[in-house]
Amino acid sequence: MKIGIIQQTCSSSRAENMDKLAQSVARVAAEGAELVVLQELHNSPYFCQVESPDNFDWAEPIPGPSTEFFGAVARRCGVVLVTSLFERRAAGLYHNTAVVFETDGSVAGTYRKMHIPDDPAYYEKFYFTPGDLGFHPIRTSVGVLGVQVCWDQWYPEGARLMALAGAELLIYPTAIGFESSDAPEEQQRQREAWMTVQRGHAVANGLPVITVNRTGHEPDPSGATNGIRFWGSSFVCGPQGELLYTAPQDEEVACVVEVDLKRSEQVRRWWPFLRDRRIEEFKDLTKRYRD
Predict the structure, then answer these.
(1) Is the pLDDT of residue 167 over 90?
(2) 10 among known catalytic residues
(3) DSSP state of 249
(4) Is 68 a catalytic residue?
């Protein structure tokens, strides 16, 4: 399968961001992409740096204007398209939601972000209710997609549940970057840990992983911090964690990466982790902590 990766900066203009994305999707589709993955909350700046009720104005219903726009992009380009939207489900009820479009522009499925962070400059608990759709892969014409969002990528349980439900790919739209006060060596440890844990999901489940991050610097509107420098580094790895592509940290990217889905079957024969799981001993995983 040929997969389009779009890593880009975001401005304060929703229309400008969406138009730039549409152009990039068309570009990778012209290069043969069958599946295109966008970054987290790609329509806007990363507004979660501050807690502001006004930022809920970025949210919209699903279906709504963005699903109409990106459905048309998917249909026009003939691709399966993974997007990431700020969903207004009801007044006072909002989600961070991935929407997947089929090649005909219809919605193939949705996933609501399950793990919601609350860290300095990442105040997502102020905005997002945890997802309630569970870990269910989305079936499309190009394959079964195990889509999650950003902070979900640190948790092996979500990846495993997607794999157990038949996912053929693990996909993570992302928005993560450096805090400016951290020393350079700490910044690199964080970025490498981020890649390592997701490559571990690939190995443990025998599945390719596609992760698409933002890039560029976005200032903190409050001035309390120096903002976030998103570390880019979008990547694709195979079912043994082998890196097939890694994007630069500080550049926009629209490229196509080829993944051999048949390789997962062979890798799982060599390393039959699903066969050897001791599921009868795993009941304590449902506890917060083993006292």
Answers:
(1) yes
(2) no
(3) S
(4) no
